[in-house]
């Protein structure tokens, strides 16, 4: 663990940027067609419930990150193996986001630029950010939060001003009943992006006021969820459900349709601006969690030594995990959600919570000393 | 990076060792008392200074005791000393009843403020900084009278930081004049001044000024500690100190602020900053510095808030243009042609038809030419200035276009960038933008707008990681602090700027009282309010 402390407002901003990161770019909940926004809001509600699992775990071990209390809850060896899995999982998700990001740029604007160039420059910037420490990451979060909101609001005004919004596209609501919505909720929106809050179990100990964890994280999730839902509504209202489902990046298509006063048009580059910022924070947070997780697991004094190697692994893996974009998306939708997201985000934490509950109930009278011990071990 | 840090640590260790060595230096005249024999004293002074010819001795006699005064020509006020010597000392009227040294003290007191010197190092310090020493045979003490009076520049208008409104005086090269200029603005007993000497050879006078109770004690301590650590032969100007005690060397951004305007320094002191004055330079340093501060011009506070807010936003816009203007042009023409309106795109294309270079080379030629012109312009003798400006206009102008080297639109881009760069009120910040502009241009050439955005990202990480005397450089934007936004993007009306910046000053935070908002007088109660005031 790095010796850093951040404010609740900074944590809030990081949660918002992290949740919105790449989920605004891809057509989240596309399989629910025009009801995507319902499944997103359901996902938000489910995500908040899941977050309470993490929150209870955090309450048991307020000084420790996930990789440390895994070893306390399940024992030394099982805990270490699980922690290793989590580190690899965080790295893998960072890799996936980096690939998403690179693919988006190479398929839309930089058709002639190789993926490796785009990805390596991005990862270099992130390595620099992580080198400067978590407090700095939180500060740039605040800086870019304002910029993103400025862009989002002006984007909304422009979309509305160009007369693109047709609300009849959203109707009829629940055309095919609740079933597709629920399926999308379970398969997509619950685990991406809201279940990904699991990564914040690594970062919660950095908050200077542990009492504000709940308001910062759930508030951030709520704001991000509403923003994503609004984006989905706007996308469907502008494009219609068919194009919304077919388009790889509906928001890009929507922005491409903006035309105002014969002057403000072809604003695709602003989409790219958002893309870089959102991608940056999403990758940074997963990557940072992997770095401090590995440092914690292997008992390294400084996580800085792992910064560059892990970044390099992420860069190379982002080029290797799939041979093309279609394969990458297919894996993401059908393999990752079921075989990775569900176990790592929901099932394992749930088991942990149950075990932690029983362990800590037995130790109730000893809890005071236990906590002190925890503090000492976290300091050392 | 760890290699760097270990290297730095080694350096620091070395520096400490050097310090220790310096203290045991046997060459320095250590604590040696003055002799009773005045001829010995005189020959010692002459020997130490190698018979320097600007050292003047004038001998006199009081009763049976011979004596001499010593001063450095040009540092001490020669006229004053001459008058004193001729009128008072030569016609002393000593009647022999008194102790001659006591008599001399009474006379010397008429010349100026005096002290006694008993050690040799005191002797050298005193006449080398413009004092006059009185030696008398048979006494192992010297009288050290303050007679500083060298030729100094008078207070003139600021030459680099101009403003429309506000005071028109600026600092000079004399530290005493500068402290007086600040004291004249803040007549508070809490304005404290501490002096020290820096430079093992040059012994330059340094003064630290702050307002007790407003400035943060921790930062004052830090400033003093860092100044004490400086171990160098001479401090020629404020830049030496800035480079020796800033938080980070590897950054293009200034983490200390300097100004030649006393009103700026006074207002910085009132915000809780600490001023460092260096003798021999008309610039005064203040720390800690934050990023937003470099966009605040003195005019902002002398004009109404709506005007100064819009001007400040204009300045930030100009900074961004100076930073990214050519880069955006390169990105738009080489990667994102779809961004440009069609007619303009065609116009640019037809202009660029005859240009043999890619946009980056074109921009580089123009930018480098302009930078050379500007650098040359700084050092031009006044007589050839006009000739060079004509040549300059030819090089960045119609001739360059007609020669087919650059396109007309490039000339416009470079000119806008150049003018925008001058609108940043602080030179050190403008020069940072100048430097980063080239990196941005290179990034835009390879990756278009993506490169620019990554460059900005890199820059913002760097800015967020910077600190100035422990204060985060991007304060109060990141970390965000709602209470201190009064003077960042929007300059609040003076009556609404109720508090000093909390992250700089400690203690007395209230700047303005309640109910300061000006109101028109109420019709009915006008009599009453008159009575009150």
From TrEMBL, chain A:
This is GerAB/ArcD/ProY family transporter. It comes from Neobacillus rhizophilus. Keywords: Germination, Membrane, Transmembrane, Transmembrane helix, Transport. InterPro entries: Spore_GerAB. GO terms for cellular component: membrane. It holds the Pfam family Spore_permease. The keyword Transmembrane applies. One of its GO terms (biological process) is spore germination. The keyword Transmembrane applies. It is found in: Membrane. Belongs to the amino acid-polyamine-organocation (APC) superfamily. Spore germination protein (SGP) (TC 2.A.3.9) family. Its main location: membrane. Coiled coil: none annotated. The chain crosses the membrane at residues 12-30, 36-57, 77-95, 107-131, 143-165, 185-204, 216-239, 271-294, 306-326, 338-358. It is a multi-pass membrane protein.
Automatic annotation (TrEMBL), chain B:
Its main location: membrane. InterPro entries: Spore_Ger (IPR004995), UPF0353/GerABKA_families (IPR050768). One of its GO terms (biological process) is spore germination. Residues 1-35, 510-533 are annotated as: Disordered. It is a multi-pass membrane protein. The chain crosses the membrane at residues 313-335, 380-399, 405-423, 435-459. It comes from the Bacteria. GO terms for cellular component: plasma membrane. Residues 17-35, 522-533 have a biased composition (Basic and acidic residues). The keyword DNA-binding does not apply. It is found in: Cell membrane; Membrane. Keywords: Membrane, Transmembrane, Transmembrane helix. Belongs to the GerABKA family. This is Spore germination protein. It comes from Neobacillus rhizophilus.
């Amino acid at each position: 663990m790095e010796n850093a402390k951040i404010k609740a407002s900074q944590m809030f901003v990081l949660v918002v940027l992290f949740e919105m990161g790449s989920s605004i770019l891809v057509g989240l909940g596309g399989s629910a067609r025009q009801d995507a926004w319902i499944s997103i809001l359901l996902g938000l509600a489910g995500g908040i419930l899941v977050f309470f699992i993490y929150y209870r775990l955090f309450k048991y071990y307020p000084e420790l990150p996930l990789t440390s209390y895994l070893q306390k809850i399940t024992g030394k060896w099982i805990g270490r193996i699980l922690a290793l899995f989590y580190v690899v999982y965080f790295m893998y998700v960072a890799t996936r986001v980096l690939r998403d990001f690179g693919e988006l740029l190479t398929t839309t604007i930089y058709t002639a630029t190789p993926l490796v160039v785009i990805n390596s420059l991005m990862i270099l910037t992130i390595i620099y950010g992580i080198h400067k420490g978590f407090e700095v990451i939180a500060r740039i979060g605040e800086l870019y939060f304002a910029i993103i909101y400025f862009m989002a609001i002006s984007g909304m005004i422009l979309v509305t001003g160009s007369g693109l919004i047709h609300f009849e596209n959203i109707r009829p609501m629940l055309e095919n009943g609740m079933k597709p919505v629920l399926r999308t909720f379970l398969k997509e929106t619950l685990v991406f992006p809201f279940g990904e809050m699991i990564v914040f179990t690594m970062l919660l100990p950095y908050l200077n006021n542990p009492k504000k964890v709940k308001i910062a994280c759930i508030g951030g999730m709520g704001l991000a969820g509403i923003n994503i839902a609004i984006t989905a509504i706007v996308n469907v209202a502008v494009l219609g459900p068919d194009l919304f489902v077919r388009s790889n990046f509906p928001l890009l298509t929507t922005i491409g349709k903006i035309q105002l006063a014969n002057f403000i048009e072809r604003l695709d580059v602003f989409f790219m601006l958002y893309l870089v910022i959102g991608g940056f924070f999403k990758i940074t947070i997963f990557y940072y969690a992997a770095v401090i997780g590995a440092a914690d697991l292997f008992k390294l004094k400084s996580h800085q030594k792992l910064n560059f190697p892990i970044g390099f692994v992420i860069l190379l893996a982002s080029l290797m995990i799939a041979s093309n974009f279609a394969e990458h998306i297919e894996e993401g939708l059908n393999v990752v959600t079921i075989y990775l997201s569900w176990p790592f985000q929901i099932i394992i934490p749930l088991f942990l919570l149950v075990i932690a509950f029983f362990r800590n109930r037995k130790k109730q009278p000893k809890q005071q000393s236990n906590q002190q011990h925890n503090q000492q071990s976290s300091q050392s | 990076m760890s290699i760097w840090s270990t290297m730095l640590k080694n350096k620091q260790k070395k520096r400490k060792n050097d310090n220790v060595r310096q203290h045991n230096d046997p060459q320095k005249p250590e604590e040696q008392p003055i002799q009773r024999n005045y001829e010995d004293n005189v020959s010692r002074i002459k020997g130490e200074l190698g018979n320097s010819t600007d050292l003047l001795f004038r001998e006199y006699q009081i009763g049976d005791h011979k004596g001499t005064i010593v001063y450095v020509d040009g540092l001490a006020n020669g006229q004053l000393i001459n008058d004193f010597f001729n009128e008072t000392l030569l016609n002393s009227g000593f009647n022999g009843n008194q102790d001659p040294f006591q008599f001399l003290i009474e006379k010397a007191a008429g010349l100026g403020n005096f002290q006694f010197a008993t050690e040799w190092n005191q002797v050298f310090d005193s006449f080398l900084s413009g004092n006059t020493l009185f030696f008398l045979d048979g006494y192992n003490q010297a009288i050290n009278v303050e007679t500083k009076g060298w030729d100094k520049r008078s207070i003139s208008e600021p030459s680099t930081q101009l403003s429309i409104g506000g005071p028109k005086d600026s600092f000079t090269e004399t530290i005493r004049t500068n402290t007086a200029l600040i004291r004249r603005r803040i007549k508070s007993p809490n304005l404290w001044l501490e002096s020290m000497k820096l430079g093992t050879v040059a012994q330059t006078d340094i003064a630290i000024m702050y307002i007790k109770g407003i400035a943060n004690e921790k930062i004052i301590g830090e400033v003093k500690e860092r100044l004490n650590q400086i171990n160098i032969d001479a401090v020629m100007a404020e830049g030496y100190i800035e480079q020796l005690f800033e938080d980070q060397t590897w950054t293009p951004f200034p983490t200390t602020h300097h100004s030649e305007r006393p009103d700026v320094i006074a207002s910085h002191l009132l915000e809780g900053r600490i001023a460092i004055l260096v003798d021999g330079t008309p610039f005064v340093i203040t720390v800690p510095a934050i990023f937003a501060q470099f966009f605040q011009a003195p005019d902002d506070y002398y004009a109404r808030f709506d005007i100064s807010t819009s001007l400040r936003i204009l300045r930030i816009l100009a900074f961004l243009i100076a930073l990214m203007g050519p880069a955006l042009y390169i990105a738009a023409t080489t990667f994102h042609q779809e961004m440009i309106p069609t007619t303009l795109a065609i116009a640019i294309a037809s202009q660029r038809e005859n240009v043999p270079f890619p946009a980056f080379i074109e921009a580089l030629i123009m930018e480098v030419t302009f930078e050379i012109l500007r650098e040359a312009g700084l050092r031009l003798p006044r007589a050839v200035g006009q000739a060079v400006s004509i040549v300059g206009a030819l090089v960045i102008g119609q001739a360059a276009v007609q020669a087919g080297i650059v396109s007309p639109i490039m000339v416009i881009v470079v000119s806008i960038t150049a003018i925008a760069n001058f609108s940043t009120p602080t030179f050190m910040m403008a020069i940072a933008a100048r430097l980063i502009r080239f990196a941005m241009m290179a990034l835009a050439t390879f990756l278009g707008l993506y490169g620019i955005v990554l460059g900005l990202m890199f820059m913002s990480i760097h800015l967020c990681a910077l600190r100035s005397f422990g204060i985060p450089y991007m304060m109060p934007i990141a970390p965000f602090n709602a209470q201190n936004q009064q003077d960042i993007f929007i300059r609040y009306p003076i009556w609404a700027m109720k508090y000093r910046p909390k992250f700089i000053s400690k203690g007395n935070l209230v700047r303005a009282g309640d109910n300061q908002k000006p109101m028109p007088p109420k019709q009915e109660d006008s009599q009453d309010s008159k009575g009150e005031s």
